[in-house]
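Assess this:
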Amino acid sequence: MNTLLEMRAVSHTFADGSAGLHDCSLVLGSGRRHALLGANGAGKTTLLQHLNGLLRPNAGRLLLEGRPYDYGRSGLAQLRRRVGLVFQNPERQLFSAQVEEDVSFGPLNLGLDAATVRARVKAALEAVGLADQARRAVHHLSFGQKKRVCIAGVLAMEPDVLLLDEPMAGLDAPMQEALAALLDRLAARGVTILLSTHDIDFAYGWADDIHLMAGGRVSASGPAQRIGADVDALEAAGQRPPLALALHAHLVTRGVLPAGSGSGTPPRSVDAVLDALRVLPFKPLMKTPT
């Protein structure tokens, strides 16, 4: 794995004395889809804000491509060009009256020429499905549309890393599917993605790697299939096993499905379990004598 971002033994204490992170370490592989899971208060948002340089550690250090973060003004500007953060609440990130004005703010601050800015804004809005909303007032948008404008604003900076804090929160099922498809397209282009979520089923089915947080530190990291099957690690982070694995294990125990569901690997989604059931030979139910 080619390491892009790394957090080494980072600790952070807030001004009121509360601990945000404690001896927290994390490695993000380049071009991979990462999911960060943990209970409320585990430190997920604090971790994301450290990766973007919004917060600075009291101990430990962060590295981008092996080089320590530079917390000077110029260093932070360079960092945030490469590592973009989308907040959970879009109201914290939107500050312009019109959609295209908001999306253009970052590229303009890079000192890009007008033609380049227009091209980036157009591409970013098309990527999030809001090309026809460019001239619309931000306050007229739905919650989900506002989230997509925030993502477009980060995409217009053309970052190497996209951090998203609870991006699925408040979105209906079709919007969640559309956002997941967008993230897949970005990952296919080589963008490294880390999103925080409470949804173990989504994380297990979508991510290449899962990172579990508890008590202000990353307690376990690894490929999604390995972490998803580690019941002890999940329980320690306040997570249940993925429903697809639990359902598959039950059907295997009952002799309905073979251990590998015909593919040699455990299913990554409930839909995959259903697909395995559909290809089984049909056996009509025996009628109970009356």
Notes: The mean pLDDT is 90. The beta strands are 3-13, 19-29, 33-38, 59-64, 67-68, 83-86, 161-165, 192-197, 209-214, 217-223.
